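thought: fold this chain, then report.
action: predict
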Amino acid sequence: DLDQNADFHLAFTLYQTQQYEKCLEIRFDETETMTENGIYEFDLIRAGCYLGLSQHQSARNLLIDTWIRTGEINALEIVVQSLFHNGLFQEIDKQITSNLASKSNILLNFKVKSLLALGEFQSAEELINLPEFDSSTFFNLRVEVLAANQRYKEIVDTVSRDLTKANDPKTRLSYYLVLGDAYYNLKEYGKS
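observation:
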């Protein structure tokens, strides 16, 4: 157990110092006493090493295996983020659709953003209208989808309604910026 703990710390140190290849050489015997959480954390370190070496597919494969083995949603979220940053938008839909039981705000957010990137504005709007998106958490994403569909009047109506409930100065500022942009696109320059 002490050896595994030392190996884990060595792997973490190698990862932090960007010695990714050396870190990937460290192996644990999973039949020994390492906890499931320890194995999960080691998998995350190894995936980070693969990403550091631009071996994105290896990282995604490891994280998908980790997701299947542990059910830890973070592993799947990292896969989807990696796919998005590599422009693999259609693959995002496949990953999320094949794991429908794993709803998370991050997964939903990336699914909508990938639909927008693919130019599937109507599909993005249909998705954003599902009950899972009925939350202020998705305000910016909802506005982005409405803007992609050139639904500026709806943006004005939604933001005007929500503005009356917003007390936080940063939120109010954000709402006013969105309103100004919507009015500008409606060619109501005075209100903008």
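thought: worth noting. The chain has eleven helices and no strands.
final: tokens above.
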